[in-house]
């Protein structure tokens, strides 16, 4: 296909709509000294703009091992064309990595993104600094840092990152404190139902230790945060990297990475305005009985609930989608689906976890993390990692997690691929938007 160039504001856009998807960020075209990419996220907001986010791994891997940057690309025509050049959101500074302190500006990774549906405001939450989540040296006194980065022009330009580490960790100090935490990369969820003040509520799910996931929410688009369920709430104590969604009645879902399943829980409000309510119990969704099942190699995916019409009888309902690899390892990313036709399908977390109806296989090769959102044209934006490229290894820097700079880490990443699907395609014609 020939490329057709045209301008939108100050950006150069290029037609890149191919049947097999559009690679927005490429690792395979690089090399041992060219930054790879990981951690896709996608959001559709005000005016139908699509924003795709990624971590540019200048050091070759996660924050804590060196410099990492957050970057985005934009589309204003439902993904048919994308900005040719990536836009820097926040760039790390490798010179700040040391074994004494954890400066926030050392790295910005695992971006979690949301665009407000009524404004041109965009928020990215990133894990920052130079600590490694899983290391014992990362603790409440020396934590993973959490940065908030904001745009007020739809993602074209970005403000200086703001350190929200203590504001978020402090929410749990009086209940079940955090030693380490970061917001699950990909998409931050914005409510379709709950609006308190000027903004619809947003929800961010934390990968945290000890005691698994927590959920925080904000009614001012990420300027201040609250703990959903309170400081002692443990919605998914065995969870890893999580995401949030919302049932049609405003109840909040957390869906978390686990081996061979997704771990789910539901929060029901007793007072939505104040955030009061309660969590149910952590429950496994194994999608048993289908031809495909979640991979035994845990990988994070996305949940999305969309309004739909059942093709067989024209009944209006909702369909819940869950993306996750379905191979023996990190491969064969697919989208599971289930109809939500009445209260029995979603009366509690056990009902939601059971009775999934089918699965659509997106990838037939190595494929990892994924993100979804609903486009303005009614199609489903799907942004995922495919084709892991390993370029070699690099020495670990001197930092708080590696005081002597010992060892090496892999230098690898993926092709970050955008595709757009009709609901009919995903569900084999059973449902349409």
Automatic annotation (TrEMBL):
GO terms for molecular function: exo-alpha-sialidase activity. It catalyses: Hydrolysis of alpha-(2->3)-, alpha-(2->6)-, alpha-(2->8)- glycosidic linkages of terminal sialic acid residues in oligosaccharides, glycoproteins, glycolipids, colominic acid and synthetic substrates. InterPro entries: BNR_rpt, Sialidase_fam, Sialidase_sf. One of its GO terms (cellular component) is membrane. It comes from the Bacteria. Its EC number is 3.2.1.18. Keywords: Signal. Residues 1-19 form the signal peptide. PANTHER family: EXO-ALPHA-SIALIDASE, SIALIDASE. Belongs to the glycosyl hydrolase 33 family. This is exo-alpha-sialidase. It comes from Leyella stercorea.
């Amino acid at each position: 296909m020939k490329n057709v160039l045209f301008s939108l504001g100050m950006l150069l856009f290029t037609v890149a709509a191919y049947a097999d998807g559009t690679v927005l960020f490429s690792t395979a075209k690089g090399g041992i000294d060219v930054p790879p990419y990981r951690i896709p996220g996608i959001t559709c907001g005000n005016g139908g703009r699509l924003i795709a986010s990624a971590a540019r791994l200048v050091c070759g891997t996660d924050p804590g091992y060196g410099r990492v940057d957050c970057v985005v690309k934009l589309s204003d025509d439902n993904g048919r064309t994308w900005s040719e050049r990536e836009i820097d959101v926040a760039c790390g500074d490798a010179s700040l990595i040391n074994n004494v302190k954890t400066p926030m500006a050392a790295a910005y990774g695992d971006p979690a993104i949301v665009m407000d549906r009524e404004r041109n405001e965009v928020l990215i939450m990133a894990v920052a600094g130079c600590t490694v989540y899983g290391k014992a040296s990362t603790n409440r006194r020396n934590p993973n840092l959490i940065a908030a980065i904001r745009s007020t022009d739809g993602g074209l330009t970005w403000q200086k990152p703001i350190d929200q580490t203590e504001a978020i960790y402090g929410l749990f100090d009086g209940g079940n404190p955090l030693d380490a935490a970061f917001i699950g990369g990909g998409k931050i969820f914005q409510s379709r139902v709950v609006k308190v003040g000027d903004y619809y509520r947003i929800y961010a799910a934390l990968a945290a230790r000890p005691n698994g996931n927590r959920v925080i929410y904000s009614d001012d688009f990420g300027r201040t945060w609250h703990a959903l369920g309170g400081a002692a709430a443990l919605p998914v104590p065995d969870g890893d990297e999580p995401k949030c969604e919302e049932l049609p009645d405003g109840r909040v879902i957390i869906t978390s990475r686990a081996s061979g399943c997704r771990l789910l829980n539901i929060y029901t409000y007793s007072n939505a305005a104040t955030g009061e309510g309660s969590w149910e119990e952590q429950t496994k969704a194994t999608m048993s009985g289908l031809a495909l099942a979640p991979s035994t190699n845990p990988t994070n995916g996305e949940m999305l609930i969309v309004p739909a019409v059942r093709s067989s009888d024209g009944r209006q309902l909702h369909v819940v989608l869950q993306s996750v690899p379905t191979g023996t390892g990190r491969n064969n990313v697919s989208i599971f689906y289930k109809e939500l036709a009445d209260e029995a399908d979603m009366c509690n977390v056990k009902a939601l976890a059971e009775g999934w109806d089918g699965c659509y296989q997106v990838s037939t090769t190595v494929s990892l993390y994924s993100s979804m959102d609903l486009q303005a044209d009614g199609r489903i934006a799907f942004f995922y990692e495919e084709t892991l490229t390993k370029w070699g290894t690099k020495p670990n820097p001197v930092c708080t997690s590696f005081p002597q700079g010992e060892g090496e880490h892999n230098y690898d990443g993926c092709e970050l691929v955008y595709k757009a699907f009709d609901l009919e395609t995903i569900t084999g014609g059973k449902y349409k938007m």
